[in-house]
Input
Amino acid sequence: MSGVLVVLEQRAGQWNRMSWEALAAGQQLAAETNQPLMAAVVGDGVDALKGELGQKKLARGYAVEHALVKEYTADGYTAALEQLVKKIAPDFVVFPHTYQVRDFAPKLATRFGQGLIADVISFHVDGGKPVFVRQLLQGKLNADYRQTASGPCFVSIQAGAFRADALEAGSTEVEVFAPQIDAAQIRNKPGELFRESAQTVDLSAAPIIVSVGRGIKEKENIGIAEELAQALGAELAASRPICDNGWLPMERQVGSSGQTVSPKLYVAVGISGAIQHLVGMKGSKAIVAINKDENAPIFEVADYGIVGDLFEVVPALTKAIKEAKGI
Amino acid sequence: MFHLAGLSRLSIASLAIGYAEPVGFSRWEIVLFLVLALASLSAFFARFSKVLVRIFESKKDPDFRLSPIARRVWDFVWEVMCQAKVIKERPLPGLAHAFVFWGFCAFALVTLNHFATGVGFPFLRSRTWVGGFYFWFAAAFAVLTAVSIAALFVRRLFVRPIWLGQKVSYESLFIAFLILALMVTYLGAFYVGASPGTIKALWWAHTLALLIFLPLIPHTKHLHLVLSPVTVFLKREGFSRIPPLAGDEDFGMVTGRDLTQIAALQAYSCVECGRCTEHCPAANTGKVLNPKEVILGLRGYLNELGPKSEEPLIGKHESLEALFQCTTCGSCEYQCPVGIQHLPMIIGMRRGAVNTGVWEDDYGTKLFLALEKNGNALGLSSSERDKFIAKQQFPIFDGTQEYCLWLGCMGGYDPQGREIIASFARVMEYLGTTYGVMKKEKCTGDPARRLGNDLVFQTLVEENLRNFEQNKVKRIVSICPHCVRTMAEDWKEYGVAPEIEHHSEFMARHQSRLPNKDTGETIVYHDPCYLGRYRGVYDQPRQVLALSGTVIDPPRARERSFCCGAGGGLAFLGEEQGERVSHNRAKELVETGAQVVGVACPFCNTMFRDALGATSEAPPKLLDIAQITALQLPQKVAARADG
Amino acid sequence: MKIIVAIKQVPSRDANVKVNAAGKWIEEQDLNYEINEPDAYALEEALQLKEKHGGEVVALCAGPDRVSQTIREALAKGADRAIHIEADDLNALDTLGVAKMLAAAVKAENADLILTGLQSDDLGLGQTGVVMAELLGIPHGTIIMQVEKSDGGIRVKRELEDGWFQHVEMPLPALLTIQSGISKLRYATLMGIKKAKTKEVKRIAASELGGLAEKAVSLDKVYMPHKQKQTQMIGGSPAEAAKTLVEKLKFEVRVI
Output
């Protein structure tokens, strides 16, 4: 047997959007290695998802169904997928690199004497065998990985590395696979999912932050930054002078005397970039700076810079984001 | 002789123009006097010996020594005998105190004679030439002392400067009263026409005052009468000297066992005048720290638990919070008239708390981890520094240049600090001085040292020294007084520190070759603590600034300069309690009306950047002395570093 | 509670990396190393658990001589003893090989809890812990924010995506991978460093632990990514600039 098996992720009947990106990666891998593409979803009573899966262009779909995988546990998922992989013996097993996959895929790979090639950003086929590209040292370096053992090769795909809109539609039969799982195998007892009540602002946990500085000029103007934050789903933060003036509470201050943050995206609006501020946000994965002074030090650390009047740029940006998000 | 004796008899009998000696002590009077004197002396020594034992039982301190004798003698003459510091920093009360002190000195002989008279062996006789003169001489001082002590009495009871404490000290008032009584009873004996009975009564009154005063000395802050001359003489060598840790069990000042003899002597010498508190930036802006209380806390500890106690110092007697509010500006140590050195004690207790992990502070931990990991206080990647060097095209120091230009954390990473470095580099180029910057640099360890983290400090110093040796660094110039002080003084503990100077010293030396164009602006100069009090550099930056404009001083200037709030690692700690130190100082600078605030330290610069904007609608320009100088340079040179 | 903390020494985050001549790894000369950050949090969590429940914390670290520095730091921060697996080149192994070696070294310890960071700063594969748990046959939890003792085991708080969390209960012994930033790290103190000198460090040669297994996955080569971090200045009218930026946020930053 051969083939590319993509394991899609769902929770409580809802797809994880990254699943489709992983499927897109699987589709490309299948095409480049001339193998059939298969996809599986694990759960219990996932009929609606089966229907959706059936509309993708696949050689075959699998619904791995069992009462003991209704709720996610690493033990349950590993047991179920071990049986599926053994049954169809694919060359490649592809996952989205989600928190859940990180929890069980290494365990699954170990059962086959394999390693998971995790968080892959791209691949190319070299001599009939794929070479997977991963980032090392926080993205400072790229590395080529290759499977050297025989047996299924386990790979997880980084979020956003492949475009889900490249997926081909089709009509696929979805086969139900019923694994043998014994309740005694499952050692962890998962509880309900919950979100933290948002009493205090924890900027350090925010994935996106919009931060305002002196350039905002008046307290009344903070509204435009707030709208941008809303559109982005971001927390609002500020540099010290803003909090000193009492325009925003102290707990929203980023910098050496405030919070240290490292969001995925940090949008600095009208912040010149004094060192006290920079040390608080330098760890951000991506930094956007909007400032009218092209020599402002903030541009030194920014990934994207717009030199211009924030009172024009910020509303335009809010509008463009809303359009892109369809809200 | 005969003639003189006759004159003397004549004086007593008719004119009474001299000190009248009591005569005719009965046996029971002598016995009573001896009993009282013995009681007084016993009460004195009962307490004083305890103090001495505590001091001598304290930990041995290698800094507790006589050398360098010349410097010590000079300090003694100047500060004790001349009372120079006491007078200089508080002229009126200082002068009053000096008269009381000189009066005491003058009275030493009179008092001895007074007691000798009581047992029937007076050695000073008013009818002799020497005695007659001396009694009059002492009388002059008695008048000055009486007036002075009366004035100090009024000040303490009615004027009540807040630095003396919230409550009126009745004990001090009583002692002032005793001193006044001593003077009055002495002067009374000059009274024309006093009967022998009155003279005897005056003698007894004077004696009783003395015998009451004596035991009070070791029981009150007047212990300084006895101890402070010794304390001044035996001060630790150097300003804010942080002694090396001794052995594997020394983590700084943790318990009574870590109090050294110098610390104990100084704690017992405190006269509670509050000069330290009066000039303390923390105490002036509503924080817990009060340097006087730090010293009194140690004294309280010694009194209660003694120098062998294993109780932690921090707790009942010392406040952890207060200790970490100190900016190490050194005003307290500079001001203290009795030779107390606060910084080795404050930093000593910080060391104790940090080296044993007692101090838990989010910002402090962040700073230490940044220093451990990144080697700079700002926690930035060293590649940021590399980028700056590349952008400025600074030559790398390789041993061939005259100077190593030390960037420091601020110069290497802070946008404002970088501007200062770029400006100073232009000045060096203009002067034709060759320089290079270090390929790699670590923090000098200043914030770690002042906050008391010896592990981080030692690691940083050793790495830097190794790097210096590899690159044959001999002479360094730096824009940062903190770097200068730390390398020049604190590094000595770990090896031979290279020669280093502050850029103000460098520019002042070359001032004749720098452009001299008056811009017509007034520049108010802020003395950085680590350049002024720590290094004694006051004139050089002023000379450099005078090339560009009119230099004025804010009310608190030179030795009395008020801190910007950044020192002692506090620039990296969290929110301040009460008013910000930087705002307090910024207001003062703005009020001078100067167009430019001239600074000579990148930390002061960064503190004032926010503070000036926050305290003034139209704040004056804030520039480093190097930037002010660079503005005067011809455009061609000035353009190089911008490229 | 006996807790083993598996820590890794990695090149410091601000290291200026250069690819080595063989193109297989980075130039190691002049490189500064430090404890892998998530592992530092795992150590912190272990120390806090010990402070709360008593017991012992054992630091486990594999690597060449230079890792003794990291071990010493762990001991200085409060670990009671350490195990140093002497392995000259960890890159000669894949994750499975490393996990086998670590598992073999701790098997006899019979610890109640094994903690490690959720991933390493250098390779970032994020699976050594999970694989170790599988090899030791014990349950595990990943990306853990909080650990509490419960009846017969522990109750942990797992981080899920998008601000969701979940409590999970599991019996002991167990293995947890700890999320970065869940607590405040402590600094090493002078007193800690001095005490560390007297603590036991057990050295085990990698060859004693099964040696080099065949690799399942190999790292063929490393190279600098094409785009270096550089500020992209976006021009045009505010509306145009906004549109361009949104494209970049969507496809480069991937936050929209």
Notes: Helices of chain C lie at 37-53, 67-77, 95-107, 128-136, 190-196, 238-251. The first strand of chain C starts at residue 2 and ends at 7. The CA atoms of residues 150 and 194 of chain C lie 36 Å apart. The first helix of chain C runs from residue 37 to 53.
